[in-house]
User: Which sequence fits this backbone?
């Protein structure tokens, strides 16, 4: 596995607060970009404590998804005899918040990922210890936030239930599995999570902003909604491809990719790929054909 030349001189190398791992400080390599970061984006001992908490409390995501499923059942049963809530502007604000949040995460993590993909081979990117690969700076901070964001994204379903919209299997299945997967990726320190989080941030940035425009009824006529689904399908193609390649190296000495995590993530992405392709076909192919026939 190759290393960026700074390792030879010790330039921009630091020790993390977690396991004393040596990592390349991205904000030092690119000082101009580094000046745009805020002090709160640099993890402290608190961030290390969060990682320890996640490692010692694997019951939390399991309990959360169980309560989430129960809330869906109870919520739909309650709303069955209630009028739909007119929460369009609240939904718009929620989607705008998620769009801005996703954009922040994407533009913070994507430059570091591009740096790694340019300077290191792909095997390094999916096998190097996560704290070394992403560092213990802003990139790791936003990666950690990404995992926890899957908890509050569960509120997407709340708006569907109270507005009495159709709740698709793909929707709640995605929320449950992605939360569990992100948590396990963090605690297993699987490096490929770096790639997955950046791609997801990017897709959600566009997707939630589109949902925001839909909620305020300002969707641009030139924007084809099929782009959103295609982007989601491409995200799943990337996920499957990365998992297949990472799994081929997971059993090698020195590779930090968790074979268990990679297999689970591969199954998750493959199921998403099938479901999103099915959704695209039914929504845009069959429906369009029926409309033209009518």
Assistant:
């Amino acid at each position: 596995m190759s290393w960026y030349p700074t390792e030879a001189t010790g330039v921009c190398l630091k020790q993390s607060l977690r396991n004393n791992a040596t990592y390349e400080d991205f904000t030092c390599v690119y000082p101009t970009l580094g000046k745009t970061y805020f002090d709160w984006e640099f993890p402290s001992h608190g961030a290390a404590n969060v990682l320890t908490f996640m490692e010692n409390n694997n019951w939390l995501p399991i309990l959360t998804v169980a309560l989430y499923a129960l809330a869906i059942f109870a919520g739909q049963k309650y709303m069955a005899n209630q009028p739909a809530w007119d929460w369009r502007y609240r939904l718009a604000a929620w989607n705008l918040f998620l769009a801005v949040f996703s954009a922040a995460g994407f533009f913070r993590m994507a430059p570091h990922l591009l740096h790694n993909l340019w300077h290191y081979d792909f095997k390094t990117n999916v096998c190097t210890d996560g704290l070394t690969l992403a560092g213990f700076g802003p990139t790791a901070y936003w990666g950690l936030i990404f995992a926890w964001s899957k908890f509050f994204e569960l509120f997407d379903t709340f708006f569907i239930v109270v507005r009495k919209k159709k709740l698709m299997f793909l929707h709640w299945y995605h929320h449950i599995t992605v939360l569990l997967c992100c948590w396990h990726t963090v605690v297993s320190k699987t490096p490929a999570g770096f790639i997955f989080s950046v791609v997801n941030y990017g897709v959600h940035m566009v997707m939630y902003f589109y949902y925001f425009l839909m909620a305020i009824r300002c969707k641009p006529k030139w924007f084809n909604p099929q782009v959103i689904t295609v982007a989601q399908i491409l995200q799943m193609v990337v996920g499957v491809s990365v998992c297949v390649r990472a799994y081929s190296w997971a059993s090698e000495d020195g590779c930090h990719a968790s074979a268990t995590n990679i297999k689970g993530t591969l199954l998750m992405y493959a199921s998403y790929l099938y479901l999103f392709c099915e959704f695209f076909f039914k929504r845009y192919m069959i429906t369009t054909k029926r409309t033209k026939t009518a």
